[in-house]
Amino acid sequence: MEIQDRQVNGITVMTLKGSIDALTAPKIAEAIQAQLGKGNIKIVADMSGVGYTSSAGLRVILSTIKETRSEGGDFRLCGVKTDVMKVLNLSGFTNILKLFDTLDAALASYA
Amino acid sequence: MEFQSNPYLIWQLIPGMILFGIGLYIQTRPVKKRESDVFSLLMFGGSLWAISAAIQPLTTDLLWQRAWNAVVYLGITSVPTSWFLLSVKLTGYFQARIEKIEKWLWAVPGVLYLCMITSGYHKLFFTSNEIVHVGGYASLENVFGMLFYVHTLYSYLLVLSGILILGTSLALNFKRYGVQAYGLIIGVLAPLVGNAYFLFGSPPVGFPDPTPIIFTVTGIAFVWAIFGGHMLEVVPLANEAIVQRLSTGVVILDSEKKIRSINPAAMKMANLPAQTSDSKAFSSLVAKIPVVMETILPVLDEVTNESQSLQVTIPEYNRTLQVLISRIEDERRLSLGWLIQFSDVSEKKQAEENLKSARRTFETVLDTLQDSYFEADRGGFITYANLSFVREVGNTAREEVIGKHFRHYTDPSVVRTIFTTFQTVYETGEPVPPFEFRFRKTDRVTRIGDAYVSPILDGKEVIGTRGLIRDITDRVLSEAALEAAKNQAESRAEALAAINRVATTVNMSLDMKDILQSVCQEMTSIFAIRNAGIGLITPDRGSLEIVAFHSSEPGETSALGMLLPLEGNPSSQEVIQKKKTVVIQDAQNDPRSNSIADVSRERGTKSLIIVPLLARGEVIGTIGMPARDPNHVFTDSEISLAETIASQIAAAVNNARLYEKTEHALDIAERDLEIGRQIQAGFFPEKLPAIPGWEIATQFHAARQVAGDFYDVFRFKNSSFTAFIIADVCDKGVGAALFMVLFRSLLRAFSEIEVNCENVQAQLLKIILNTNNFIAIYHGRSNMFATLFFGILDPESGILYYVNCGHEEPVILNKDGKIVERLSPTGPAVGLFPDMPFEVKQRQIDLGDILVGFTDGTTDARNTSGDSFTEERFLQNIAVPWTSAFSMLFELNVELQKHIGAQPQFDDITLISFRRKLTMERDNHAICRPANLEILPELRDFVESAARNHQLSSDDILAFKLAVDEICTNILQYGYSGRLPGLLSLFFDVDAGKARLIIRDDGNPFSPDQAQLPDIESGWEEREIGGLGIYFVKGMMDNVSYSQVAGNVNQLVLEKGVKFSK
After folding, report:
1. pLDDT at A50
2. Looking at the DSSP assignment, which residues form a beta bridge with residue B709?
3. Which of A64, B318, B321, B801 is the most exposed place for a label (fewest CB within 10 A)?
4. Closest partner residue to A23 among B934, B961, B1025, by Cβ?
5. CB count, 10 Å around CB of B967?
6. Quick one: which of B939, B834, B923 has its CA closest to B886?
7. What is the mean pLDDT of chain B?
8. How far is CA B608 from the centre of its chain?
């Protein structure tokens, strides 16, 4: 699992690559916690490098949404791939998440 | 005893001693033993005669005198025989015949002598021999009896015969004997004189017999003659010996043309017995083989001082004689006779005959050849041609061809080549490499041949050329027929070339429109179409933009740049929606093509094909191609080829778009690799055939650089026979990938044949040979080849027929995991040279056996330290009992990946495996791992690849992947809390449209029923963080059942009805 982060106009872009499961989810959670610790609550996760997620990934997403939104920020996704999208659909997460095709669109959504 | 004196004592003793001396002397000389012995015998006989005659009258005693008388007679009886034999041996007259009866000649005097000494009893030789006293002198008086006269007569006969023989020889060969002749005359005359004296003279009483004295004269004369003239000495002896032993027959004719001498070799050639005497030989020679003398005699007079040579064949004796006649002349050039030398050349003649017969056989063989054979002289004129050649040039008789110039039969286009080729052969004396030759037939039809020309050598000199011409016209024609029959393969090859050009264009230009334009152009040349147009779906998905168009009709309006709305264009809509090719047979009337009905009518087109451009499962555009011929019916092979090309175009478009999108200059090599990979990936079978009782599993991991591995599994038409291919095309890169596609396409195309139990071996061989020849002949210049294992499995009998073309030896494991056989190569790699020898072998695959094929990328896989995985390790890893072929490959791959680690994969890893199930059991793919969270990705991989192996749809694959992940996460996170980690195993199988996953663990019991399910409809504020996993599992699976087995093992069975990918 590769996790990179950068700041674009006050928005934290986290680029994820790999599969998300019980093994890798804690690392992502840790990385997000580090951002939240710095006060970065507007986050976009670039999911174009993620081919798979289990419910472990969804748990991280849900907890992150709860934390960011409670502080006025958000956790939004872009470039979600088919299999991940299927899982999001299956779990009803598409109803609670803001998804964007491209990073630009996701960044623009914060404006 | 009373002594008395002998007045002639001295006169008798002296010659006696002389004779004895001569006899001894002769023996010390280096002379011919045969003659010197008989000469010594004569001398000793005479000596004995003379000396004992001298001694006899020394006493008056009767017994003394009788005893010495007996000794005297020993000499007397031996001398005539010795004399006669000497004469024969010296002259050589009657020699052979006399020598034969020599011992009998000696028997006569022997018998007579016996009669003489026993005469006292029978009185036959001497009626009495008593002492008579004449004048006080006691001499023994022999009164002669009948046998004495017999003896005397016989002796005279011999002596006179000897004189006659010697005399004749002397008279005839006076010159030859030279100075000896005088001595010989004296020697011969002396006994005559003695005889005359004995007959006509009246010797006084007591006067001794003069004969021994006379022989003394003979002896001395002969010694002088013979040794003075060296008659018996070594040089003439050697000369004679040479002539006698010569293998050349020597005959000497005198001036009367009578044979004077003939040596044994000549006799043998004349088929006369070796002992035949001269004169007899002559008559026999003439009588028996008149042809010899008849041929020779007339020639004799024509012989001048030059020798004359001629050849005589004696059919009766099957002999051929080479005759050399030379005239013998004296100093005054007067003819003395002729020397005739015969050499038996029968063997040489026979050898020549044999050579001729061998040549005839050779020519017979040449006539049976299908290839044309010719021989030509240095001038280029044909000296020999076999029947094939004669036929080839349109003639019927060999005579019409022989003598003609080679040019007559050479097509004008290659006359110069032929001329220089022949010239090269003359100059170098070496054969020339095969070249293409074109015959010109009498009817001016040209036929094509492969010609091999080599020199005809006489010693080191080139005296002409010979050549073999293989008519390849038929081959070319049959190849054309083959091409026609296999135009699918052929057009695929062309298509590949097109793809190659496309790929090259992609490399050279990133302008997508250029690429597509060139593809359209290719399409019009590959297919019998009027034009080809590529339309890409516009971003609003409302229309097709024609981005490339090419027409084979000059002057046709280009559709380039046109925007075709999808609305009102049902055919394109259908293509895009169904992601399938649409073929319209009547574009003028079919409602689906109403938007172009007018254009179609105007252009007279009817048949139309629209192919989707599919990139990663999405239609990005279409290719439309109207047929040139209105009645053209697009064949399945044309459609599939068009689809193949379309997929390549789509990939290219995708790449180009990717390029534009990212605005990164993709590394050209990377793009190259990507194209190669796509080509390669596109040609792996999408779906493995299901064979009852068998399980097939494959693994393919592309190298970082594109390589040329491929595998294929397919069924022969109307048959359960299943082909099983694993191959490795040499080299790497796009070229290798293209050739991989070519190999695969050829194998598929040539496999479009009926296969059954009877013909499977022949058919398999045909497939391999056709593929080999196609590559070697049409792509020989590329020097591309592939190692290939091609097996044909008869699933019912379990017999595997296979050809292993230089490929890594596949392994057969039995159900106990023991390696029972390696299928070693039965032929060379495919594509090296035409008509290589391949052999089909067969092997029974028993129940539970697994056949594993692999490529060298497997055993050569490197780790970061550069160490290979090795074949040992490969074999070690697979040599355990397996319940499924898939599990085996999966586990092997796990090991391989562990080994490779972070090292970029250098070569493709390709594995294919067939397992004959023990019973009609379900496939039972299984893995077992220590229970810790680290194994999660591996468990997902296992289920994903097993599901993929069974061609499950992507939704179903994801369902099982998620299910195994969620369940195992639960087990691994909570199942072992408070206890030691144990083992977790997975079993996956698919049967009758139902997939089943069994998860076993020895952790704490946990049933998913205990879990609380989340409310997925609720908003984010209400959502609980747990419970989703089990919700997924239950939601996606048709059936989830928990049980405990074998005491404390938890078993969760997940089942789901599945759909299969297309």
Report:
1. 94
2. B728
3. B318
4. B934
5. 27
6. B923
7. 79
8. 56
d(CA B896, CA B706): 19
B109: Cα separation from own chain's centroid:
78
Q: Using CA atoms, how far apart are residues B316 and B289, in angstroms rounded to an integer? A: 8
Contact flag B1020-A69 (C-beta cutoff 8 Å): yes
The pLDDT tens digits for B654-681 are: 766 665 554 444 455 566 666 667 767 7
What residues does B694 pair with on adjacent strands?
Answer: B916
CA distance B907 to B709: 9
Please indicate if any CB of chain B lies within 8 Å of the CB of A38: no
Checking if the pLDDT of B1016 tops 50, the result is: yes
Q: How many residues in chain B?
A: 1062
Q: Are B717 and B689 in contact (CB under 8 A)?
A: no
pLDDT tens digits, B97-134: 887 888 888 888 899 889 888 888 888 888 888 888 77
**Record: contact A22-B962, CB cut-off 8 A:** no
Phi and psi dihedrals of B127, rounded to 5?
-65, -35
What does the pLDDT read at residue B130? Answer: 82
Q: Which of A50, A68, A70, A90 to mutate to probe the B interface, most B CBs <10 Å? A: A90
Q: How far apart are CA B239 and CA B208, in angstroms?
A: 44
The B residues from 1000 to 1019 touching A (CB cutoff 8 Å) are 1016-1017, 1019
Which position has the higher pLDDT, B705 or B699? B699
Based on its alpha-carbon atoms, the radius of gyration of chain A, rounded to whole angstroms, reads 12
Q: How confident is the model at residue B815 (pLDDT cuts 50, 70, 90)?
A: confident
Q: At residue A67, does pLDDT exceed 50? A: yes
Look at residue B615 and give its three-state secondary structure. strand
Comparing CB atoms, the residue among B933, B1016, B1020 nearest residue A23 is B933
> Could you tell me how many residues make up chain A?
111
Average pLDDT over residues B833-838: 87
Q: How far apart are CA B309 and CA B296, in angstroms?
A: 10
Residue B302 has pLDDT above 80, yes or no: no
DSSP-assigned beta bridge partners for residue B448: B438
Cβ-Cβ contacts under 8 Å, A48 against chain B: none
The secondary structure of B137-202, three-state, reads EEEEEEEECHHHHHHHHHHHHHHHHHHHHHHHHHHHCHHHHCCHHHHHHHHHHHHHHHHHHHHHCC
Q: Which two tokens stand for residue B536?
A: 């890409």
Q: Which of B7, B274, B324, B250 has its CA nearest to residue B134?
A: B7
Mean pLDDT highest for which of A80-84, B40-44, B218-222, B303-307?
A: A80-84
**Token pair belonging to B631:** 């009645």
Cα–Cα distance, B1040 to B588 (Å, whole number)? 57
By Cβ distance, the residue of A23, A52, A96 closest to B1020 is: A96
Gap between the Cα atoms of B556 and B465, Å rounded = 59
Whole-number percent of chain B with pLDDT over 90: 10
| SS3 readout for B705-740 | CCEEEEEEEEECCCCCCEEEEEEEEEEECHHHHHHH
Amino acid at A43: I
Task: Lowest mean pLDDT of B311-325, B407-421, B827-841, name the range.
Answer: B311-325
Q: What is the DSSP string of B996-1011?
A: EEEEEE-SS---GGGS
Q: What 3-state DSSP class applies to B404? A: coil
Question: If you average pLDDT over residues B489-495, what whole number do you get?
Answer: 53
* Pick from B381, B366, B393, B385: nearest CA to B422: B381
Any bridge partners for residue B529, and if so which?
B627
Enumerate residues 6+ apart whose C-beta is below 8 A from B28.
none
Nearest to B614 by CA among B585, B584, B642: B642
Q: Does B471 touch chain A (CB under 8 A)?
A: no
Integer Cα distance of B265 and B243 in angstroms:
9
